[in-house]
Amino acid sequence: MKTYKIACIPGDGIGKEVIPAGQEVLQALAGGGAGFDFQFTSFGWGGDWYRAHGTMMPDDGLEQIRGMDAILFGSAGDPHIPDHITLWGLRLKICQGFDQYANVRPTRILPGIDAPLKRCGPADLDWVIVRENSEGEYAGVGGRAHQGHPIEVATDVSILTRAGVERIMRFAFRLAQSRPRKLLTVVTKSNAQRHGMVMWDEIALAVSKEFPDVRWDKELVDACTARMVNRPASLDTLVATNLHADILSDLAAALAGSLGIAPTGNVDPERRYPSMFEPIHGSAFDIMGKGLANPVGTFWSCVMLLEHLGEKEAAARLMQAIEEITADPKLHTGDLGGKAKTTEVTAAVIARLKNR
Ligand code: NAD
Ligand code: MN
């Protein structure tokens, strides 16, 4: 029997509530006839670690998790610590340290979810957004000078490399090719950003020649927001830069009904390092510690984790169980207009997994 080593990093806020729930659900799928098992190791990194040690994770943190098969991550963000410290000190450190250059965000309207687009049925919204996750606007290049003086200056320089753009384009075309519609939209802003984004467009065109069976088009990022709302069925797979896809994917999550449902994977397609799966929501300060968090985003992230490990059957079983519980309004948490608690939703998913 194969044993997968999984690093669990709950982080902060509701991360501490949804990650243990995800671990329980994964455990319910393992053992016996499944043919695989999990060995979980939890790491108490994040805001509490910062208060105790002055850093979000230990200096050798990446070494501690390098040998894992995958990482299940909650959220980084603490009400008492500036966001750029929590984000860069933990989540981005892992994403960049492990060169997880493809951030993959599936979006669908699950059964029973009341999504805001009244003119569109669930079948009209089935997207995967691919976010360049290693450079671009979040490369961390820039600085500040003359701090505190009237002539103070601050820069964030977007870095696009030919190698970086080629690899994300290739990943996105390959993903589009693997989906039934074989349709890719390359999101750009080459009208206003006339250097990096023009190269981005040129590389998209060059890589497209390797995928003659994939239909593709280009859309400016601002126009893309309108298209997502007005013509959702015209989109399938999208690829965008770090910043553009960050924003588009929050819109996508809202259009699908709630931030509490949406999953993501930070993937190293070459599998040199462990990939990291996480709900896209943050620490949710307003509801943390109350047992009210929707764990579905974490469960769906577990589906992606299982797919990444090659456990397609277990992944499909879990997705099926998720769709059964979202279809039942009694199992909706507050973000979906219901009253269910994190523990109730978790128990319901596990009960469905056990009943098969
Ligand atoms: P957020 O996602 O934490 O919350 C936005 C709103 O959505 C809140 O009203 C929250 O209650 C609700 N919500 C989010 N997830 C939910 C869930 N699972 N169930 C029910 N309701 C849910 O975003 P924010 O308020 O902008 O950020 C709070 C903190 O989290 C900040 O410190 C931010 O930096 C951090 N953050 C971290 C990540 C990450 O680690 N990947 C992502 C986003 C935000
Ligand atoms: Mn975001």
TrEMBL record:
- The record's EC number reads 1.1.1.83
Q: Say which enzyme class the record assigns.
A: oxidoreductase
Enzymatic reactions: (R)-malate + NAD(+) = pyruvate + CO2 + NADH
SUPFAM superfamilies tied to this protein: Isocitrate/Isopropylmalate dehydrogenase-like
Looking up InterPro entries in the UniProt record yields: ICDH/IPMDH (IPR050501), IsoCit/isopropylmalate_DH_CS (IPR019818), IsoPropMal-DH-like_dom (IPR024084), TTC_DH (IPR011829)
- What keyword terms does UniProt attach to this protein? Manganese, Metal-binding, NAD, Oxidoreductase
Keyword NAD listed? The answer is yes
**Isopropylmalate dehydrogenase-like domain: which residues?**
5-349
Query: What cofactor does this one take?
Result: Mn(2+); Mg(2+)
Which terms does the record give in the GO molecular function aspect? D-malate dehydrogenase (decarboxylating) (NAD+) activity; magnesium ion binding; NAD binding
Please state which protein family the record places this protein in: Belongs to the isocitrate and isopropylmalate dehydrogenases family.
Entry protein name? D-malate dehydrogenase (decarboxylating)
Q: Which organism is it from?
A: Ramlibacter monticola
